[in-house]
Design a protein that fits this description.
About 55% of the residues lie in helices and about 5% in strands. The protein has about 220 residues and is mainly alpha-helical.
Length: about 220
């Protein structure tokens, strides 16, 4: 956290780093694991996905900034004596609030996919359907979060919901990168999750309602 009276960092987070979707530097290449290199190879060959991520970054760059954690995961929420705390503020900065909202949503999508497991023999549509059922069991958490966000007076607009849905997909990719640190190959679950992340990033409007991101009347569309 910054010292009292000190301005928050206003620079863009290092991730997503769009340059890495076009080419990796030699130091980056040698530092990545086999699984991470495999993932970047998949991303770099997917022009539609690269375009979606580039578009998200551009929309986010022009969104009204707010103090944002920028590294949000459920395991960073701690409960002590019935009080909820959020840890690890190293990436705190002024940023698009959709980044944190999307990370929270993406965490539940991530947990839903990992709850069902996956093998190389599982059809993509069957995996997506099972993931949707698991996510349905967790929707009350998403609904409570989104409702509380709006009741707190935050500017919950259609534009924010759109970007947050896309950032949920980006969060899935972020979790795959983190999990692949010591892996030589992407697992079947990682590859399937990459497909779900792609859908969220490329078609946010199609999944916004699935994540229950309705906007209250006071949240004017942007």
């Amino acid at each position: 956290m910054p010292a009292q009276g000190q301005a928050l960092d206003a620079t863009e987070p290092s991730w997503p780093r769009l340059g890495g979707l076009n080419a990796l530097t030699l130091p980056e290449y040698t530092a990545l694991s086999g699984a991470q290199l495999e993932l970047f190879g998949l991303l770099q060959e997917d022009t539609a996905l690269v375009s979606a991520i580039t578009g998200l970054a551009e929309l986010s760059r022009h969104a009204p900034p707010a103090p944002a954690h920028c590294d949000l995961r459920l395991d960073q929420f701690l409960v002590h004596e019935d009080k909820l705390y959020l840890a690890d503020w190293e990436e705190l900065r002024m940023e698009d609030p959709a980044r944190d909202v999307g990370a929270f949503l993406g965490e539940w999508v991530h947990r839903s996919l990992h709850a069902i497991g996956h093998s190389s023999q599982t059809a993509a549509e069957a995996f997506a359907a099972s993931g949707a059922r698991e996510l349905g069991n967790r929707l009350p958490f998403l609904q409570a979060f989104w409702s509380g966000y709006q009741q707190a007076g935050q500017p919950a607009s259609h534009g924010l919901a759109y970007r947050a849905t896309a950032f949920a997909g980006w969060h899935l990719l972020d979790r795959i990168v983190a999990a692949g640190t010591e892996q030589t190959r992407l697992s079947a679950l990682d590859r399937a999750s990459t497909g779900i992340a792609r859908r969220l990033l490329c078609s946010p409007n199609a999944f916004r309602d699935v994540l229950e991101l309705s906007v209250s009347p006071q949240g004017a569309p942007s």
